[in-house]
Structures are given as C-alpha cells and as structure tokens.
Amino acid sequence: MPEGPSIVILKEQVTPFLGHTIRSVAGNTTIEKERLLGQRVDAFRSWGKNFLMEMPDFTLRVHFMLFGSYRINESKSWAVPRLALGFDVGEINLYACSVRFIEEPLDLVYDWWADVMSQHWDPQLALQRLRRAPGMLVCDALLDQDIFAGVGNIIKNEVLFRIRVHPLSTVGALPAAKLRELVREARNYSFEFYEWKKQFVLKKHWLVHTKRTCPRCQIPLKKEWLGRTDRRSFFCENCQRLYT
Question: Which among 92, 128, 181, 222 has most CB atoms closer than 10 A?
C-alpha cells in the first residue's frame, strides 16, 4: 500500500498536468467517468494516503488500497487501468485503486492537521488524540488515519523499532516522553521515507520491515500479524520494550 510520502511524490510528478483539461477517459471503474471529460485540473493535493484532483465543481479522490499503482505517460501492457486520463500534454493511468467523486469543499472533508506530511501537521493535536485512547495498541495508533494520516505499515514498524517500543504496548502505558517521541518520529521518519523513495533507496534503509535479524541485538526478529488491523509487525522482543 502506498504510504503518505509516496502520494506526495505522485503529487509532484503530475505537476505538468496542472491547469490542463481532461480530453479522454477510459478504464474499468464503475463511477461516471465521462463526467471528467472537459474538466480542468485546478489543483493536485494529498491527504494521508489519498490522492486528490481538484476540478472547478468537484474533486476526484484516488486511494491505492493494498496493491494500487500508477503510470505517467506510459501504461501497463498486461493490465487494464481502473481509470485512464488523457490530456494534451500526456496521460495518467491508475491501476487497482479506488476512485470516487467528492462534491464538498475539501476543507470540510479532510483534517489537514492530521496529515504527517502536511505543513499544517499539529503534533499537539496528535498527542491529544492519543491520550483520549489509552487502551489502544501503539501498532494500531500509528495506523489510525485520524491521528497519523499517511502513516502505513512500513513507517509503523520502523518507527516502533527506532523508539524501542513493542507494538503490543498500550498508548496509556507509555511514559509522556516516549509518547512525544512516538509522535515526533512518525513525522521525522515519514520525511526520511520521502527522501529515500525519491532516491530509489528506501528498502536499503529498512531496519526491521521484512527483515529476519535485529540489527541491534543480532537475534531473530518476530513477525506477527497484530492489532485490530491485523497487519504484519516486525519487531525485536529484546530491545523493544513492552509497556502495559
């Protein structure tokens, strides 16, 4: 699943289409895609894992789910796009994703202060929301898009290893300093992810995600599906403390 930093990169890559009009539409989506014909793209925005194309009267929202992808000015010969948009200056092809229209102004739909990649990110708001859910597991808290919009499973695993916290720790059991560290590193790692992704070196920097051995303790890592989201967690039982 593309995480918030990857969506920000996509937003940057489609900048050449800004202000241009959609000349053709295709794809196997069930939405009324013909509605997009003749629409001018006024802005590209992102919120968490959502890619947003603003037009004069509505917005197209794209969520890449677990296996979604995109191609710009090229297509996959082996796959039918969910939605293909043609412009005078090129094309955008979206695959295996969810697309829908948003009729309301985006400021009424999205909490920009919860987006870890946004200039409006508010760490104090994240702390307040965490403190309201003391029984929540930290592995679930980091994936809660109302608190950390844009954080996905890679960031979750790497942040918890970085701050030495076991994924089954509860939010309320974390010391205040550790809770602040959780919030700080969720944003810090997201921006590091963004830089590494742009340089095509992201996987080289993974310490525990999909790994077998703890780089600190040199012992086997645990791999389990944890929390209400049942997502893969890679962690070290020796150096990541369980707070309960």
Answer: 92
Which residues, in sequence order, are bridge partners of residue 73? none
Locus of tokens 């939605």: 83
For residue 40, the one-letter residue type is: R
**Rounded CA separation 227/84 (Å):** 36
Topology at the third CATH level for domain 4-109: N-terminal domain of MutM-like DNA repair proteins (3.20.190)
Mean pLDDT to the nearest integer, 113-127: 96
pTM value surpassing 0.85: yes
Q: Quick one: tokens of 148?
A: 């950390």
CA distance 132 to 124: 13
φ, ψ (nearest 5 deg) of residue 241: -75, 140
User: Residue 2 — very low, low, confident or very high, per pLDDT cuts 50/70/90?
Assistant: confident
Per DSSP, 22 falls in state E
Tell me, what DSSP letter sits at residue 221? P
Residue extents of the structural domains in the chain: 4-109, 113-235
Alpha-carbon gap, residue 222 to 166, rounded angstroms: 11
Distance, in Å, from the CA atom of 31 to the CA atom of 197, rounded to the nearest integer, reads 31
Going 189 to 192 to 196 to 201, the CA torsion angle's sign is negative
Task: Count Cβ atoms within 10 A of the Cβ of residue 188 and give its class: 0-12 exposed, 13-18 middle, 19 or more buried.
Answer: middle
Render pLDDT for 40-73 as a digit per residue (tens, 0 to 9). Answer: 999 999 999 999 999 999 999 999 988 899 999 9
